[in-house]
Amino acid sequence: MAAIWTICLGNLRRRKVQNGLIALLLLLSTLLINTALTVISNSQDLYEDLHRDTAGSHELLNLTRGLHDPQQVQKWWASQEGITASVLQPYKPLAGVMHKGEDIPNVYLYMMNTPDRPFGTDELVFAQGQETAHPARGTVWIPTSLAYKYNVAVGDELQFKTGNTPVRLTVSAVVIDLSHGGPFSTTARIWMNHADYQRELSAVPGGDSYLMGIRFDNYAERAGYWERFESDLGTPFLEERTTFEEISAFYFIMNKIIGFVMSFLGLLMMLVALYTIGFTISDAILANYRTIGVFKSMGLSSGQIISAYLAQYSFLSLLTILPGLALSRLVSSVIIDQSLSFIKTDDASIRIQNGGTEWIVGAGILLLILLCVWLYASRTRQVQPMQAIRYGMSEAAHHRLTGRWNAGRKRGKEFERWPVPWVIGVRNVTQNVKGSLLLLILTTLTSAVLVFGLVLLNSINQMQKTSPLWGYDASDVVLMVVNESALDRDAIEASLQADPRVLHLNWVGPSIGVVPANKTQRPGSTGRSLESVSFPLTVVDGSADEIGFASLSGRNPRNKNEISIGINISRQLQKELGDTLEVYIEGKPHIFTVTGIYQSISNMSNQARVTADAVSKLNPDAGYITLKNSADSDMVVRELTVKYGSSIQPIKQQTLLDSVFKEAAGVLLIPLSILALLFLMVTCLIIYSTCRIHIRKMTKTYGIYKSIGLTSNTLRGAVTWGIAGLAAVGACVGTLCGIYLLPAILRGLLSSYGIVQLPLLVQWTDILLVVLVIMAVSSFGSWIASQVIRSTSPRILVTE
Question: Burial level of 402, CB count in 10 A (0-12/13-18/19+)?
């Protein structure tokens, strides 16, 4: 045992650089893998815990069209066993709010007539302010999704546009509204005092709309409940219905993307670490072949020598895995705190729960490392003491080496006409095959990480260039209708038609489409659906092509009997181009032909588009203006605000996109930046270590070069440019992986969210910069490692 520990400590002491590098790789691998698993599992756990504690809804019913009696609907669901139904929650929709004199863009408001608490489902959690039974007169409660995003605090005044004179109300509390306050939400429920609701919103046209939530004791039985409900109702449910998957989806999407990137790259870094361990052990066995032979001749068995390597790497693993697990908890808390900030209160921060997962990860990594060590260290079993002492290697390896040396002398004539530094650089790469392969893999991974992160962030930041492929429009200015009673469409249209800067104006309004239960299967399909399918409709008065709506296949609807459907509706209903589809709109059945299938991140592609001819009356909520020159957007917005500001809120499309997706870019920026820096640092260190090991092996060769007149800087430059060329090859391969391979894997993750083609913007100037950075980092690592050449003297040859 004393001999084993002596060998172990000797290996740790002699190979400080390699051991330190392996320790760093294991630390980072543990950090990335455990952080990814912690982020993914905790996002789901934290949401589910809050969903359970607040009796969160599994489905939301939004009754806005007067097609069903709200009291009758609520009474039916409340009477069912195994169901918790909320009270009816009356509200009126608005589309304009100001804070500190500035419009808050892209927010649709549900002005709630706050009922008595508890509601039954979706109970509110007070994040800021004092909890009371109802908002006090002149005050409102607002959701965290609105308050945190636009820096609205308790005590601030909000101005709600209900007519010529805005309604001024003070924020008395900020609440977590789980069903309507998720990330990227454009809808916010504003909870009002009953007296304020009656007095201030009486001028808003139309009657009350109603929201109610449904919670199932057994979610798997919901289809049976819906079959009975629609049977008793006598018709399909014709109003808006939101499922649990749609309610919860965007609480998880960012952390799933982050978790995917970190876990994928963590596994790749672990493979690099294992390869480095194998490379180091193999190198150590070859370097100490004669010493191992002496150990065996003195009576040490192969198993005891293998145990020395196992002890060495067990010590390194424990020294790095435990800090890696601790650091991953810190990094996970930062990511989760930022991405799930909407469910955080002032009194209690988000708590990370591992549930033993981190210990399983740590144990798994340790076992994987020890297995790798055992496999490579088992090569010591082949060491024969007599051959090791005589040759310093096996006899067969000695003969192969001699043969390669003689053959190399013959091949060397091929390089006679090439510059000497070029030959030295090429041979430095080709002679060290394992080390060069490691560097090639590492530069490929690093460039893939950097390019993928750069392309993803750039695509989100410049989403206006690809917005139709995300399901949005391609217009320049959007007119949000804030006061429909004061809206004079004819006057606005006449004014814009006379404006030489305007190319197109088209109006869009919302509706609801419902496919009955007996119509949700393709003809000839087996099985029967127990429930109808409800989805939002985008009703276009004008040309969807002019608005800029895009399709994955087919085209936008142009006639009354045509419909374009989202990809998830296509999957759910098993409908393709040319199929017919029966849809209830405003309580009346319509037969449509599917002319297009599109993707949309909004509503997870659970939506469809029809023309205005399909509805009896369009109530537009937005107008889309396309300009001849998009640079005129700011001026057009200012002029329309002055002229029609009481009825519409003109906003640049870029502003609307930023209000949703800058949040995503901010959440992704920190983890992707950390990953980029980690990989660059690891690349530099591994190149430094590998080059240093190889240069020390080639000490006599560099002594010969110096003896014939080559300077240290010439030799160092030759080594550096060889590594730079290898790094350039790896960076080019990694660039292709970052542009095509990683996005392809990410598309599989986003497919369930309705995105099957990832719209990415590739800027080759930025990518060229990434390649140059990889080459610079690689060159720096090899240049620093080559300092040892300075101490190489031709006198070494005399000594030998």
Answer: exposed
Residue 183, preceding peptide bond in cis (omega within 30° of 0): no
Residue 573 CA to residue 581 CA, distance in Å, equals 9
Residue 617 Cα distances to 267, 508, 590, 634, 644, angstroms: 56, 12, 15, 32, 23
Task: Give strand pairing partners of 158.
Answer: 99, 169
Q: Which two tokens stand for residue 714?
A: 């010439």
What pLDDT sits at residue 211?
95
Which residues, given as ranges, of the chain have pLDDT below 70? 1-15, 17, 286-290, 292-299, 347-350, 353-355, 382-423, 425, 427-428, 519-530, 791-800
Q: Which parts of 93-162 fold into alpha helices (H)?
A: 144-147
Distances (CA, A) of 115 to 70, 92, 192, 450: 15, 14, 9, 52
Q: Nearest CA to 449 among 161, 68, 739?
A: 739
Residue with tokens 């549930």: 355
Spatial separation of the C-alpha atoms in residues 49 and 41, rounded to whole Å: 12
CB 319 within 8 A of CB 22: no
C-alpha to C-alpha distance for 686 and 681, rounded to whole angstroms: 9
Q: Specify whether the CB–CB gap between 770 and 731 falls below 8 A.
A: yes
CA 430 – CA 680 distance, rounded (Å): 24
Q: How many angstroms from the chain centroid is the CA of residue 73?
A: 39
* The two three-digit tokens of residue 322, written as one number: 């435990």
Residue listed under structure tokens 């020598």: 305
**pLDDT of amino acid 545:** 94
Beta strand 139-143 pairing with 167-176: parallel
Dihedral sign of CA atoms 518, 522, 524, 529 in order: negative
> Cα Rg for the chain, rounded, in angstroms?
34
Residues whose CB is less than 8 angstroms from the CB of residue 328 and which lie 6 or more positions away in sequence, other chains included: 30, 31, 32, 34, 35, 38, 358
The first and second tokens of residue 260, run together, are 């995917």
Find all residues with CB under 8 Å of 584, minimum gap 6, and list them: 235, 236, 238, 513, 514, 515, 516, 590
Question: How far are the Cα atoms of 461, 466, 496, 638 from residue 632, in angstroms, in the given order?
Answer: 21, 20, 13, 10
Contact by Cβ (8 Å): 761, 458: yes
Angle between helices 699-707 and 712-736 (to 10 degrees): 130
Q: What is the pLDDT of residue 576?
A: 94
How far apart, in whole angstroms, are the C-alpha atoms of residue 789 and residue 800? 17
CA 438 to chain centre: 29
- Is there a contact between 62 and 74 (Cβ–Cβ < 8 Å)? no
Give a three-class secondary structure readout of 91-115. Answer: EEEECCEEECCEECCCCEEEEEECC
